[in-house]
Each structure stands twice: as C-alpha cells, then as structure tokens.
Amino acid sequence: MPSDALKAVVTSALLMVDIDPWSSQVSTDYGRIIEQFGLESIPVAQLPNPSMHHRRGIIFAHRDLSNILQAHSRGEPFGVMTGLMPSGKMHLGHKMVIDQVRWFQEQGADVTIAVADLEANATRGYNLADCRNIALEEYVSNYVAMGLDPEKTNIYFQSRRSVVQKMGFTLGKRTNLSELEAIYGFKGETNLAHVQAPLVQAGDILHPQLDEYGGLRPIVVPVGVDQDPHLRLCRGLAGKTNWFNVNMRKNTGLRITVSVMDENQHIVAGDKATKKQVFSDIVDELRKLGYSDILADAKHGIVDLPAATGKDRYPIRMALLKLERRMGGPGLLQPSSTYHQFAVGMTGGKMSSSMPETTIFLTEDLKKMEKKFKRSFSGGQATVEEHRRLGGNPDIDVAFQYLKFFFEENDSTLEEIRRGYVSGNILSGELKAMTIEKATDWLNELAELRDQNSHLVSEFIAKDSL
Ligand code: TRP
Fold it and tell me: Ligand 1 mean position to 285 CA, how many Å?
C-alpha cells in the first residue's frame, strides 16, 4: 500500500492540468503524463549502449530524441544541456541528471551547464555572490567527481553570459503574458523577474546552437517531468522563429511551409524576384539531399516532397535551418528532451532538498546516511513471520528503489534481490543493509574523487564566467 502522502500526490496529479516547475508537488502517473504532454516513449532498442536508467524504464519519455540519435549515427555533432539552481546541497535527485549528462557525453555529446543564478535570485531570493560560492563549492566539485570530462564540459553563469540574457529578451517577442499564465499559472501579482526566468532559461537551452558556442546542432535536455513546462515554452519559442517549417503531409510525404514574419517579410514575401530566389534556394537544398520529386508552389509558400518520410525530417530541417542562417535568420532547432521518473523520497513522499530526511546528500555523513535508510519507508511486512509468508513489496520499498535508481548497476543482481524480497527470503533489514553497503561505497568513492580532482574545478568554468 502506498503511503497516504504518496496517494495524495497521485490524486492531486490526476486533478492537475499543468505541472508547476517551482512547486514541491510532483505527479507520479507517468502514463498519463506521456499522453497529456504529447511525449513519446523511449525506443530503448534503438539506443547505443542504453544505461541502467534506460533499461529499467526510469528514463521513460522524450521529445525529438531521434534528432540526437540521427546526428549520432551520422557522426554529426550534438550537445547535451542542463542547468542548476545553486540553492542548497546536491542530492541523489541531482545525481540522476548528471548520470544522464555523462551518458550523452560518453556517446559523443558536448556538455553545456548553466548555473541558473538569475533564476535562483528571481525565484528563491538568493543573491548572486552566494550563488557563485554554492555553485563552485557544492555543484561543480561534484560534477567533477561524477566523471564529466573537463575538455568537453562548459559551465557558465547566467548572470555572466550576456548573449543568454539577450536571447531571453528577444525570444520574449514570440510569447505573451497569456501564454505564460497558461503554462505556469502566473498571476497579476507574479513578479516580473519570475516571469523572465523561463525566458532566460530558453536562452540557456538555445544559445549553444549559436556559431560562437558550437553552431547549429541538436541539443538534448534531460529533465524530470516537472521541468517540461520550460521545454514546451522553449520549443514553442524556437519554432516561432523558424522561417521554414517541415511537417508531415496529410497522406504521405513532407510539406515545407514558409512562415512570413516581421524579420523576413522583405525576403520571403518580398518582390517577385527575391521570393523566387528563396524558393529556388529551397529546391536546391532538397536536390542536394537527393530528392527529385519536388513540388514548389511559391504562390502559397509551400514545397511538397511526396516521397519523403518521417525520418527525412531531421536532415531536411537541418539543411533549411542552415539556409535560413545564410539568409540572415536565427536558424534555431527546437531542443530535444528526455524525461525521467522520480525516485520516491526516503520517508515515502517526495524527495526534496528542503526536507533533508527525504534524500541523501552527495556529501552526506555515512552515519547519517545509515540512519536515514534504517528509518526509511519499507515495503516489508509487520513481523518476520508475515514477511516470510507474504514477502515484501519492492515497488514501494525505499531501499529497493534506491538500488534500482542509484546504486545497483547490474540488472541480474537487482532482479535476484527483487525476487528474494518478493518471496520473503530477504528481510527488510537485510535489504536495507545491502543498500547501505552500496551507498557507503558510492559516497566514499565520490568523496575521494572530489578530493583528487578539486584542481580541475576551474577547467570546467567557461572563460566568461571565471
Ligand atoms: N530551471 C532549472 C531548475 O529549476 C534550472 C535551469 C536553468 C535549467 N536553465 C536550465 C535546466 C536549462 C535545464 C536547462 O533547476
């Protein structure tokens, strides 16, 4: 039986229309989230070297991950992006995101990490100097210890990278208060720094595509579902800047439509000759990609490719974004994203850094860690006799869940433990002892790596943010 706290979260999620990324409540109904937000399931079989989070269905959904997979299989560059609010101590929830960043890095991604000091200032009231200290001492030192490669990792502060703020500002033109109200539930009394934070975050996510930050390439943002509102906003903003849209046609094939906006109307809706040139440029790009059946209808601003299929979308998009850039447009690809489930908090409710008893910090004292597991929510029976007879429930057992989410890499070992627990052979106390042992090894190793690699911290920080 789930705890009352968990039940309350699930029930409130069923009533909730939107997820608020700053709230401490989180939905756990993942099937419904996929449907409601129009996400896709992770194609585990298509992933190169799937991680334990993929194999176990913990990373359960995505948007446009195929862009990343296609870039990867073509040997083209791609990047991974994440951000952190430096507001407290890093805990197991953060480890999960960094594990994913490292996985993408191992598959060839470059890494950009935003220290969201402006957001922490706007939404949590932290001053920028404190943010800086917390970020360096607590966050960056743990990134280093968790194995990110300094050569391929670029960490910057929002307050120091003016192009991010500039993009946040200019992207603001593509949205309005009503949309932000609909996405985030902002009200008349919401302060404007809070309204700006998601726009700056869109700048975080999109700016790695600028020429001076690596150029046009797909960027993936691994997040928990609570962050999806930011992704939806950012994808919408990027999409609205696109001069050329590539979509499935009603029956078969792909359709390219030209968007006329203030910035490009003198080109794409200019005089006849200019407009004709735009269409012949589009057709040239498509020919270069190997298409011969191309139906260009300049009058209606449409180019059809009857023989193209869904997987052709990515190379066509990339070619047209490059063309857009040559014509003077921003040429921004909508970001990809992946979504992971949340591990249950140690007391059975939500994991939150503001409730230390619900999680393990990356610098946690071993004795305290042990105590937290000993007190943690258990899926075992009330007495040993009952447990031997009925078995435990690993789905709600914190010790088991933490092996699954964080500490046991080996699938068959995990499965053995699960069976032992379900059958009643393994008692709750024994399961907790196993998890404590694993967690001890992990915390010890992390502490060692933090010490050994502390000299690398400054190598991770971008020049503009040193
Ligand atoms: N909003 C994120 C948080 O609450 C932090 C963040 C800022 C971020 N910029 C980002 C996350 C870009 C992912 C990508 O922690």
Answer: 36
Q: Compute the half-sphere exposure of residue 277: CA atoms within 13 Å on the CB side of its CA.
A: 12
How much is the CA Rg of the chain, to the nearest whole Å? 24
Cβ atoms 301, 257 nearer than 8 A: yes
Atom of ligand 1 nearest to the CA of 200: 9
Q: Please identify which residue in the block is written with the tokens 């691994």.
A: 222
Copy the structure tokens of residue 358: 């619900």
202 Cα to the center of ligand 1, angstroms = 9
Note the pLDDT tens digit of each residue in 305-359: 999 999 999 999 999 999 999 999 999 999 999 999 999 999 999 998 889 999 9
SS3 state at 326: helix
Residue listed under structure tokens 């992946």: 338
Q: Which residues pair with 82 in a beta bridge?
A: 113
Question: What atom in ligand 1 is closest to the CA of residue 230?
Answer: 1
Amino acid letter, residue 211? D
362-377 residue pLDDT tens: 999 999 999 999 999 9
CA distance 17 to 12: 10
Beta-strand pair 40-41/59-63: antiparallel
List CB contacts of 329: < 8 A, sequence separation 6 or more.
241, 243, 263, 264
Verify whether ligand 1 is closer than 6 Å to residue 204 (CB atom): yes
Rounded to the nearest 5 percent, the helix, strand and coil shares of the chain are 55, 10, 30
338 lines ligand 1 (CB under 6 A): no
In the chain, what is the straight-line distance between the N-terminal and C-terminal CA atoms, in Å? 50
Residues 6+ apart with CB under 8 A from 264: 243, 327, 328, 329
Is the shortest distance between the CB of 119 and ligand 1 below 6 Å?
Answer: yes
Ligand 1 atom with the smallest distance to the CA of 198 is 1
